[in-house]
Amino acid sequence: MKFINLVPTSAIAILTVLAAATVMAQPPNKSQRMMSHLDKDGDNLVSVEEFEVPSRGRDRGRLASADRDGDGNVSRSEMQAQVDERTEQAIERFELADLNDDDFLTEEEIKMAAFSRLDRNDDGYIDAKELSMVQHTSRHQRPG
User: Fold this and answer.
1) What is the CA radius of gyration of the chain?
2) What is the distance, to the nearest Å, from the Cα of residue 19 to the centroid of all Cα atoms in its chain?
3) For residues 88 and 29, what is the distance between their CA atoms, to the nearest angstrom?
4) What is the tens place of the pLDDT at every residue in 12-27?
5) Which of 28, 70, 108, 126 would disulfide-bridge 32, Cβ 3.0–4.6 Å?
6) Got the DSSP string for 110-140?
7) Is pTM, for the whole model, over 0.70?
8) In a shared domain, residues 30 and 79
9) 79 with 11, same domain?
């Protein structure tokens, strides 16, 4: 009778160990890698002293481009100017994508607009060179 009671308990213990081993064997995801980079003292928490603002990336570039007078600070008017520019660009992209001018974007119109941006030579196909150009552009300079 006692042996029968040990079987479920043993099975649960073995499954727990296997599950833990499986989780530990998984490669770290992006947030885990970021946490291990930021968590200098290893306590699985990031204090204000440990926290670092990313030195590169899209948001950093946007803030740097917003600093119109180059003083190292972004004023409200500089930020508003950047928001206004981005709004105008978004409206232009919408209008280009709205192929039938009905002020609505369908999935097909969105697909066609995205395809057109990739098909640089307008031959109706996306080749490896065009894809490489887009990847290079998006990595180094986001359009407007």
Assistant:
1) 26
2) 30
3) 36
4) 666 666 666 655 556 6
5) 28
6) HHHHHHHHH-TT-SS---HHHHHHHHHHHHH
7) no
8) no
9) no
> Could you give the CA distance from residue 95 to residue 20 in angstroms, rounded to a whole number?
52
Task: Please state, in angstroms and rounded to a whole number, the distance separating the CA atoms of residues 40 and 91.
Answer: 44
Structure tokens that stand for 13 in this block: 């213990």
Written as six digits, the tokens of 60 are: 């950093």
Cα 11 versus chain centre, distance: 41
Domain count of the fold of the chain: 2
Per-residue pLDDT, 109: 92
Query: Which one has a higher pLDDT value, 43 or 132?
Result: 43
Predicted confidence at residue 24, as pLDDT, reads: 57
The 10 Å Cβ neighbour count of residue 116 is 13
Domain span including residue 22:
2-38
The pLDDT of residue 56 is above 80: no
Q: Which two tokens stand for residue 75?
A: 């004023």
Residue 140 token pair: 């180094």
Nearest partner of 34 among 63, 60, 54, judged by Cα: 54
How high is the pLDDT of residue 8? 60
Q: Phi/psi of residue 26, each to 5°?
A: -65, 140
